[in-house]
Write a structure and sequence with these properties.
Elements: H1 2-11, H2 13-33, H3 41-46, E1 50-51, H4 52-57, H5 62-66, H6 74-92, H7 97-118, E2 123-124, H8 128-144, H9 146-149, H10 152-173, H11 179-195, H12 199-230
Helix pairs in contact: 2-6, 6-8, 7-8, 7-11, 7-12, 8-11, 11-12
Length: about 230
């Protein structure tokens, strides 16, 4: 029994490892704040969430990465962790560990950076941008292999459409959810997943995207938001 559990963990090691890290972060912030159910924006900002004045004025860019492991409450944490396990395990069947890690982090970081541009005074946390990136990557992979899938392709896309529609509906019902990160994540993830049919193109895309994110962060964000934030 224990051997079977270990085999399952090893098969989906990236998904379960990220889920464990997210869980440990939530446990940590719950202990630090003394609140397990809902964590305030101030407490999140103090503990590493994205908040443009701190990111740009204090040069605390590490928050873009750290915020991917933080969540604003038990419901937020539970929904994202469950979604990651469901989507991530499916994703891990088709992508290598390094492809998974690449898509997860580059979509999560891109979502966080673009969110700063659109919501400069909001406190931003959550793994949903990266999770949508993984989801988009899975869709891109299926589209790239639609001929091989044959009649199964329509069935898969129908299920994908329902899942995507459900998640977008949740974002509309709960206005505090950052839809920008979701949209950025799913678009970039789709492109990366589609390009995964050619390993060279996949990694070129990731390198170019990484460089673009860097320059957008250091030039565009700083130029556009520095003066307004100082005022």
């Amino acid at each position: 029994m224990l051997s079977n559990k270990f085999q399952e963990f090893y098969r989906y090691k990236i998904t379960y490892s990220i889920s464990i890290i997210i869980s440990l972060f939530y446990l940590y912030i719950s202990l630090v704040t003394g609140n397990f159910i809902d964590i305030t924006s101030k407490e999140l900002a103090t503990n590493g969430a994205i908040f443009a004045p701190m990111v740009i004025l204090e040069n605390e860019w590490y928050r873009v990465l750290l915020s991917m492991f933080l969540h604003g409450g038990l419901t937020h944490f539970a929904l994202n962790t469950i979604s990651l396990i469901l989507v991530g395990r499916a994703f891990e069947n088709y992508f290598s560990p390094w492809e998974y890690i690449s898509i997860y982090f580059i979509t999560g970081i891109a979502g966080g950076v673009i969110s700063i541009y659109f919501h400069p005074l909001s406190v931003i946390v959550g793994a949903s941008g990266a999770i949508f990136g993984v989801f988009g990557g899975l869709v891109g992979f299926f589209v790239a292999h639609k001929n091989a899938l044959g009649s199964e392709f329509k069935e898969i896309m129908s299920s994908v459409g329902m899942i995507l529609g459900f998640n977008l509906a949740i974002g509309l019902v709960f206005p505090t959810i950052d839809m920008v990160a979701h949209i950025v994540g799913v678009i970039i993830g789709f492109m990366a997943g589609y390009l995964s049919i050619n390993s060279k193109l996949f990694w070129i895309f990731n390198v170019v995207l990484g460089i673009s994110i860097y320059y957008f962060s250091t030039l565009v964000l700083t130029k556009e938001l520095l003066i307004p934030l100082l005022n």
